Amino acid sequence: AQKVTQAQTEISVVEKEDVTLDCVYETRDTTYYLFWYKQPPSGELVFLIRRNSFDEQNEISGRYSWNFQKSTSSFNFTITASQVVDSAVYFCALSGGTSYDKVIFGPGTSLSVIP
Amino acid sequence: DSGVTQTPKHLITATGQRVTLRCSPRSGDLSVYWYQQSLDQGLQFLIQYYNGEERAKGNILERFSAQQFPDLHSELNLSSLELGDSALYFCASSERGLQETQYFGPGTRLLVL
After folding, report:
1. For FRET with B101, which of A6, A53, A101, B31 sits at 20 to 30 Å CA-CA?
2. pLDDT tens sequence for chain A (115 residues)
3. Chain A hits for B45, Cβ within 8 Å
4. How many whole angstroms separate alpha carbon B108 and alpha carbon B9?
5. Do residues A65 and A75 make contact, with C-beta atoms less than 8 angstroms apart?
6. Got the DSSP string for B78-93?
7. Is B80 left (phi over 0), alpha (psi -120 to 50) or beta?
8. Mutating which of A101, A105, A110 best tests the B interface, going by the most B Cβ atoms within 10 A?
9. What span, in angstroms and rounded, lies between the C-alpha atoms of B76 and B88?
């Protein structure tokens, strides 16, 4: 069975601090996708990144970076120099196996960035 | 603005009733996804349609059904509503599948009393 764990329920940081959101996944599939989504206080969902299981290269997009480690089944998300606008709930998700379009979400991590 | 529209924004109804949620995908997107977000269950994938055909099914109850029409808009039908169906229902679209970026609608907040 597939599972996504986000052990950090809530995190608070002061503006300009770096913060890492943890994501650990379980799957028996050899090919799968991992995702991160953002849900700001306004409620909409925003897709952030998708990573194929064959691509373990870390990715950086501005202040955001992602560290994918197959050996530890982790796909962590780091925000550098956090800003108040980063305050949101962040979801890690997994899809794979017989249906790459069937996504399993983690419970989410609520990030508060304090000015 | 993601380009995905959902109507209505809010819906209040009673137990046992039936409602229909509507989603219009971004222009050119063939895939439509439905998700449910509730306090109890978190964020769950319900179902995906691609160019009118059901492609993937998640934790969708038998009381729920969906379809995608020739103009690619989709409807999610919820029947025999229960209190536990109160949730935020999101629709998303992508060109084909999850190998492309998904764009989410603003959601429909359903309250069952």
Report:
1. A6
2. 889 999 999 999 999 999 999 999 999 988 899 999 999 999 999 999 999 898 888 888 899 999 999 999 999 999 999 999 999 999 999 998 766 778 999 999 999 999 9
3. 102-105
4. 5
5. no
6. E-S--GGG-EEEEEEE
7. left
8. A101
9. 13
Distance (Å, whole) CA A39 – CA A82 = 16
Q: Is B83 on the interface with A (CB under 8 A)?
A: no
CA distance A30 to A42: 36
CA-CA distance, B47 to B53, in Å (whole number)?
Answer: 11
**Mutation site for A-interface testing, chosen from B31, B38, B98 by largest number of A Cβ within 10 Å:** B98
A35 neighbors A92 (Cβ within 8 angstroms): yes
Straight-line distance from the first to the last Cα atom of chain B, in angstroms, rounded to the nearest whole number: 31
Beta-carbon contacts of residue A93 (< 8 Å; ≥ 6 apart)? A4, A34, A35, A36, A37, A103, A104, A105, A106
Cα–Cα dist B104/A24, whole Å: 24
Coil, helix or strand for A35? strand
∠ CA A44-A33-A60, rounded to 5°: 70
Q: Cα(B112)–Cα(A73) distance, rounded to whole angstroms? A: 39
H or E, element range at A63: none
Report which residue type is found at A85. Answer: V
